[in-house]
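re: the backbone from monday

yeah here it is again, tokenized this time
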């Protein structure tokens, strides 16, 4: 949901649903939705959605847009172009001077889950997460489609 507030903190108008299905969106303090308003006043919201997976935890990254000042949002567009269930999140959203939409995120599509990795004496008993990769994509048509995803860095999040 998204809402507009005045400068003094009063809500202006009703809240509006961004994603089409209740319970689909995910968020936590490290991966909240991102909101950007383009020069033409289009509102873009980047958000993650649950994906059914054997691992129990996977997300896809979506972009929703409103071209009527936040009164309604169109169908979301999937940003990550892989099909294997994996975590895609901790995303950033920006609009270039030319109107191009940029999305960057941490991605686990190529990562071996820790539970499948062999532990040694140094790692046994320690909390570990896989290092993620940094991916980026862009849209030059107002968020209707995205370029193929590009991996720009590896081992970027050794949580």
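seq for it, each position gets an aa:
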């Amino acid at each position: 949901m998204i809402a507009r507030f005045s400068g003094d903190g009063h809500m202006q108008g009703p809240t509006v649903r961004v994603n089409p299905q209740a319970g689909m969106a995910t968020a936590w303090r490290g991966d909240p939705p991102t909101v950007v308003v383009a020069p033409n006043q289009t509102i873009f919201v980047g958000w993650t959605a649950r994906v059914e997976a054997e691992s129990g935890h996977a997300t896809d990254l979506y972009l929703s847009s409103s071209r009527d000042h936040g009164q309604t949002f169109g169908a979301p567009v999937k940003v990550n172009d892989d099909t294997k269930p994996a975590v895609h999140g901790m995303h950033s959203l920006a609009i270039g001077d030319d109107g191009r939409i940029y999305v960057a995120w941490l991605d686990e599509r190529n990562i071996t889950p820790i539970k499948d990795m062999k532990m040694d004496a140094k790692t046994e008993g320690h909390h570990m997460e896989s290092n993620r990769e940094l991916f980026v994509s862009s849209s030059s048509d107002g968020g209707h489609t995205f370029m193929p995803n590009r991996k720009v860095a590896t081992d970027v999040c050794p949580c």
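The chain has a mean pLDDT of 88. Residues 16-153 form a domain with the Neuraminidase fold (CATH 2.120.10.10).
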